[in-house]
């Protein structure tokens, strides 16, 4: 038998399964990208061919995945330290770092060019900028340098609905900026809640999260401030051309609950949080995911109602 | 002669090749679908002058 691999035993590095490469693209983050980009595209004015919609979303998702692979390539050293990320394909040894880099670069090029061909070059340009922003500005620069990493870096996650809108209309408008702003303002409280119950993970890895640089009480206050700033923006979007009665009702209910959660977090200290295993922080973090899906889901419903002539404004 | 069980490494390699093959097939399908969609939608603008008079290409008369 001439196959040199036949005598190898145990798990092999450099012989990753297909699932390892899929994991490099951060599929869970991709669901958020797909959903918000889809909403951005569907609430935009005009009619859209289903195939163009499908292809646009596919390539936006692929671009998001490419930036995830680049992020995992660059962050392999700190991912290996943090409990939450040490099972990722690069730190676990399933995929080599240079493979992650190659996949990220190749998929970035493919996704941008294909989005340009499928939709238009404004959307493709925005996607290219998003990949650059996430991989270079956030991952390589901000993440290890400033406690504002999540605040500014949040822009990368906020671009997908704007790209979706641009894919449909070929431009940028107040409505797409409002969708961008909604995710941009939502990101800090979402990640700071995570940082609170991840305890020493970020400190061990030397990532200057707000919990590490300014302390946990300051992080709790920041969550409340950002949630308070987010609420009027989220509710105000109801009165734009993409809003409607369903969105208004959802936004009011979700923001009141989000504010109550942020207030509860700001009133607690770590002793109380330790006593109940960070129950309030974990509930707030989980609710923040529903919060975003509910807002964008409501935008979709209102867009659907408006198309059937049932929109109120 | 009975075949031995595949080594785990070969199973993994097969899965990777299968996944890549399906991804490429999917890409071809998307390209095909996009081409059909673009041709369907883009038909009117793809007409050019070819030495034959076609009334549908003339500017509309203003009343």
Automatic annotation (TrEMBL), chain A:
<protein>
    <recommendedName>
        <fullName>Protoheme IX farnesyltransferase</fullName>
        <ecNumber>2.5.1.141</ecNumber>
    </recommendedName>
</protein>
<keyword id="KW-0350">Heme biosynthesis</keyword>
<dbReference type="GO" id="GO:0048034">
    <property type="term" value="P:heme O biosynthetic process"/>
</dbReference>
<feature type="transmembrane region" description="Helical">
    <location>
        <begin position="121"/>
        <end position="141"/>
    </location>
</feature>
<keyword id="KW-1133">Transmembrane helix</keyword>
<comment type="pathway">
    <text>Porphyrin-containing compound metabolism; heme O biosynthesis; heme O from protoheme: step 1/1.</text>
</comment>
<feature type="transmembrane region" description="Helical">
    <location>
        <begin position="29"/>
        <end position="46"/>
    </location>
</feature>
<feature type="transmembrane region" description="Helical">
    <location>
        <begin position="246"/>
        <end position="266"/>
    </location>
</feature>
<dbReference type="InterPro" id="IPR000537">
    <property type="entry name" value="UbiA_prenyltransferase"/>
</dbReference>
<dbReference type="InterPro" id="IPR030470">
    <property type="entry name" value="UbiA_prenylTrfase_CS"/>
</dbReference>
<dbReference type="InterPro" id="IPR006369">
    <property type="entry name" value="Protohaem_IX_farnesylTrfase"/>
</dbReference>
<dbReference type="InterPro" id="IPR044878">
    <property type="entry name" value="UbiA_sf"/>
</dbReference>
<feature type="transmembrane region" description="Helical">
    <location>
        <begin position="223"/>
        <end position="240"/>
    </location>
</feature>
<dbReference type="GO" id="GO:0008495">
    <property type="term" value="F:protoheme IX farnesyltransferase activity"/>
</dbReference>
<comment type="function">
    <text>Converts heme B (protoheme IX) to heme O by substitution of the vinyl group on carbon 2 of heme B porphyrin ring with a hydroxyethyl farnesyl side group.</text>
</comment>
<comment type="subunit">
    <text>Interacts with CtaA.</text>
</comment>
<keyword id="KW-1003">Cell membrane</keyword>
<feature type="transmembrane region" description="Helical">
    <location>
        <begin position="52"/>
        <end position="74"/>
    </location>
</feature>
<dbReference type="GO" id="GO:0005886">
    <property type="term" value="C:plasma membrane"/>
</dbReference>
<feature type="transmembrane region" description="Helical">
    <location>
        <begin position="287"/>
        <end position="310"/>
    </location>
</feature>
<keyword id="KW-0808">Transferase</keyword>
<dbReference type="Pfam" id="PF01040">
    <property type="entry name" value="UbiA"/>
</dbReference>
Automatic annotation (TrEMBL), chain B:
<keyword id="KW-0472">Membrane</keyword>
<protein>
    <recommendedName>
        <fullName>Cytochrome C oxidase assembly protein</fullName>
    </recommendedName>
</protein>
<feature type="transmembrane region" description="Helical">
    <location>
        <begin position="18"/>
        <end position="37"/>
    </location>
</feature>
<keyword id="KW-0812">Transmembrane</keyword>
<keyword id="KW-1133">Transmembrane helix</keyword>
């Amino acid at each position: 038998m001439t196959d040199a691999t036949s005598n190898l035993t145990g798990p092999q590095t450099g012989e990753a399964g297909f699932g390892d490469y899929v994991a490099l693209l951060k599929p869970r983050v991709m669901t958020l990208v797909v959903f918000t980009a889809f909403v951005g595209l569907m609430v935009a004015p005009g009619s859209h061919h289903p195939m163009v919609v499908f292809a646009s979303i596919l390539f936006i998702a692929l671009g998001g995945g490419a930036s995830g692979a680049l992020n995992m390539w660059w962050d392999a050293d700190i991912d290996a330290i943090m409990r939450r990320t040490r099972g990722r394909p690069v730190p676990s040894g399933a995929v080599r770092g240079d493979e992650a880099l190659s996949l990220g670069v190749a998929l970035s090029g493919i996704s941008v060019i294909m989005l340009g061909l499928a939709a238009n070059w404004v959307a493709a340009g925005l996607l290219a900028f998003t990949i650059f922003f996430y991989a270079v500005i956030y991952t390589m620069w901000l993440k290890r340098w400033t406690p504002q990493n999540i605040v500014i870096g949040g822009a990368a996650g906020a671009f997908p609905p704007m790209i979706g809108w641009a894919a449909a209309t070929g431009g940028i408008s107040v409505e797409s900026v409002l969708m961008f702003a909604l995710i941009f303002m939502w990101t800090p409280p979402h990640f700071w809640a995570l940082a609170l119950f991840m305890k020493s993970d970020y400190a061990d890895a030397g990532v200057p999260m707000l919990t590490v640089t300014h302390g946990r009480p300051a992080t709790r206050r920041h969550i409340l401030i950002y949630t308070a700033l987010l609420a009027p923006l989220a509710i105000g979007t109801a009165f734009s051309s993409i809003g409607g009665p369903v969105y208004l009702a959802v936004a009011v209910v979700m923001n009141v609950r989000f504010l109550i959660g942020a207030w509860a977090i700001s009133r607690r200290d770590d002793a109380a949080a330790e006593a109940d295993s960070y129950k309030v922080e974990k509930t707030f973090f989980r609710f923040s995911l529903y919060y975003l899906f509910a807002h964008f889901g409501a935008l979709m419903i209102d867009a659907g109602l408006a198309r059937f002539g049932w929109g109120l404004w | 002669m009975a075949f031995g069980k595949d080594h785990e490494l070969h199973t993994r390699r097969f899965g990777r090749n299968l996944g890549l093959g399906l991804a490429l097939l999917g890409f071809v399908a998307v390209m095909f679908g996009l081409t059909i969609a673009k041709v369907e939608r883009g038909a009117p603008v793809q007409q050019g002058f070819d030495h034959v008079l076609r009334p549908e290409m003339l500017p509309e008369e203003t009343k």
